Amino acid sequence: MSAPVTAASVTADLVAEQDQLDAIVAPLDANAWELATPSPGWAVRDQIGHLAYFDRTAALAIADTEAFLAHRDELMAAAMSGASDDLTLAESRAMSAPELLAHWRDGRRALADAAATVTDETRVEWYGPSMSSKSFLTARLMEAWAHGQDIVDTVDVGRSATGRLRHIAQLGYITRGWTYANRGLDVPEGDVRVELTSPDGEAWAWGPEEGADATVTGTALDFCLVTSQRRHLDDTGLVVSGELARDWLTKAQLFAGPPSDPPAPRT
After folding, report:
1. What is the spatial distance between Cα 263 and Cα 209, in angstroms, rounded to a whole number?
2. Are 199 and 160 in contact (CB under 8 A)?
3. pTM
4. According to the 3-state scheme, what is the secondary structure of 166-184?
5. What is the per-residue pLDDT across 63-114, written as a single tens digit (0 to 9) for each?
6. Distance between the two ends of the chain, CA-based, in angstroms?
């Protein structure tokens, strides 16, 4: 039986995920930091700058709720004017690669220190509704992994899949309803069973064991790539049975923000 998930265990996995990405970006030369990634308008440096910015605001959200709420109002106003990238990336874009790496590391340490103060019962204010500590830290882990995927795709460096994908796969499953609500659509009736193979060969599953209206089977990595919109469903080995599941996975969006679409097939 796997150990229970706690805020402390998610924090440990978050730190490990960040460390894995650090080991990939730290050796890159200055030119590699400027390479364009699959996110339009973002270079490798912007992926790290984004993580650095929001790791710092996440630490603030835990440590000083009042200050975070004031910051949130400022960022939301910038987002309404279409200037959110200017606010969140301006500081990091003015840094050299070594300065940015150190900046990100400082933010990660601040977040880990703040996370050490929460309990499983803690709720944390964020840019949408408040979140449980475990969900909040899981979202940070997902961000590190997903933006890290954009980087490894760009610099063509291998990255080992780990058991930490379980956090992201579960998030991918439980945000099925969000995928539709975020697009202003009704959630189609019916249940989807998801059965995945972990990087270590374990079986992970969500949804009813019997009576599901559709099923998804395959590797946890492929499921995470699809639900985080890093791959199109047709470019993975996922086996989908039932239109209910296919419709979901061609729209799936496990992250917050306005609705967006997955990459086109074979891109």
Report:
1. 31
2. yes
3. 0.95
4. HHHHHHHHHCHHHHHHCCC
5. 999 999 999 998 888 877 777 788 899 999 999 999 999 999 999 999 999 9
6. 39
